[in-house]
Write a structure and sequence with these properties.
This protein has 364 residues and is α+β, with helices and mostly antiparallel strands. It is built from 7 helices and 23 strands. The strands form 8 sheets. The chain has a 6-stranded antiparallel beta barrel. Strand 12 and strand 13 form a beta hairpin. The radius of gyration is 31 Å and the shape is flat. The two termini are 20 Å apart. 24% of the residues are buried. It holds the Pfam family FlgI. This is Flagellar P-ring protein. InterPro entries: Flag_FlgI. The basal body constitutes a major portion of the flagellar organelle and consists of four rings (L,P,S, and M) mounted on a central rod.
């Protein structure tokens, strides 16, 4: 298992000195961002799989409020009992520079105890931003990527039935003001903090524009002064396609303790060390035992359990792990230990504590 896992890490760590990437893949223009929108709505047209309105009170209240807008008023104290309606939350991301009339996709998720949203239609729902203003209106038929059925207490479901999408289901009603392109100076924000990348990006821009047009302000932000007379959009488009020579990334070993995944990048170095690894297994077996009462004793038959616990520890072998500066040699050395993925996590932590692992060990 560990052999396959580390082999995957070898294939997925393709960084090397001299590798180049475009600026558009390394950074974004400051202020050019998406804005999250959210709304509360009602889905109708469900085939008896909606909210139980006697349990989810706000669904019935929402329907009453909706009907009142069309002149339908229910008697006081009457809660409609419906099976084809579900209360939902609607979410989406408003792209930068989105204009009124533009259509965007939305995600619809059940809020009550509906069993399925399949076949439902979202009624007109306002979508608000963090400032409480309405920026889009949503409505449309849901696309659910799943199916399910239930009968006589049995239930089967494929994928998830309580969340779906409406492609182009929201129409932008208000544009978000964005002054990012109004100034002659823009800021490029790196996706990952790195002084070397910031310096290399500034050098690439200066070679293209000439002079000192770009200056790294810190390990995250590069300030660029756009040339006079050139269109800002045209100038930024030219900058985005510039190639930046990247330095080798910081040496890192990423460990996911929940799944047992271990990923090692190309910059990791391993010092000489010796590792002893032994296997420890614990087996618990339970055997049911029936106790019968004596004849005419009016006793009852009882069932007891007999547990047998065994602990087996394999012999530990001391392995000599040589110093390695190449990722393939590191993988070969760790595979020689014959440890499982979970054991490998503990071994890497011990090697790091001994000072032989020349990398940052990050556990997620």
């Amino acid at each position: 298992m560990a052999r396959l896992l580390l082999a995957f890490a070898l294939c997925s760590s393709a960084f090397a000195a001299g590798n180049t990437e475009r600026i558009r893949d390394l950074a974004t223009v400051s202020g050019v961002r998406v804005n999250q929108l959210i709304g509360y709505g009602v889905v109708v047209g469900l085939d008896g799989s909606g909210d139980a309105t006697n349990q989810v009170q706000f669904t019935g209240q929402s329907v009453q409020s909706l009907l009142s807008q069309f002149g339908v008023t229910l008697p006081p104290g009457v809660t409609p009992q419906m099976k084809n309606v579900a209360a939902v939350m609607v979410t989406t991301a408003l792209p930068a520079f989105a204009q009124p009339g533009q259509q965007i996709d939305i995600t619809v998720s059940s809020l009550g105890n509906a069993r399925s949203l399949r076949g439902g239609t979202l009624l007109l729902t306002p979508l608000r931003g963090a400032d409480g203003q309405i920026y889009a209106m949503a409505q449309g038929n849901l696309v659910i990527g799943g199916a399910g059925a239930s009968s006589a207490g049995s239930k089967v479901a494929i994928n998830h039935l309580l969340a779906g999408r409406v492609p182009g289901g929201a129409t932008v009603e208000r544009a978000v003001p964005n002054p990012a392109l109004e100034a002659d100076v823009i800021h490029l924000e790196l996706n990952q903090t790195d002084f070397s990348t910031a310096r290399a990006m500034a050098d690439a821009i200066n070679r293209s524009l000439g002079g000192d047009a770009a200056q790294p302000l810190d390990a995250r932000v590069v300030q660029v002064r756009l040339p006079g007379g050139a269109g800002r959009v045209k100038a930024i488009a030219g900058l985005e396609n510039l190639e930046v020579a990247l330095a080798a990334p910081p040496a890192k070993v990423i460990v996911n303790a929940r799944t047992g995944s271990v990923v090692i990048n190309q910059s990791v170095r391993l010092g000489a060390c010796a590792v002893a690894h032994g296997n420890l297994s614990v087996t618990v077996s339970t055997t049911p035992m029936v106790s019968q009462p004596a004849p005419l004793s009016q006793g009852q038959t009882t069932v007891a359990e007999k547990s047998d616990i065994r602990i087996q520890q394999g012999a530990g072998t001391l392995f000599n792990v040589p110093a390695s500066a190449d990722l393939a040699e590191i993988v070969k050395s760790l595979n020689a230990l014959g440890a499982s993925a979970q054991d490998l996590i503990g071994i890497l932590q011990a090697i790091k504590a001994a000072g032989a692992l020349k990398a940052e060990l990050e556990i997620i």
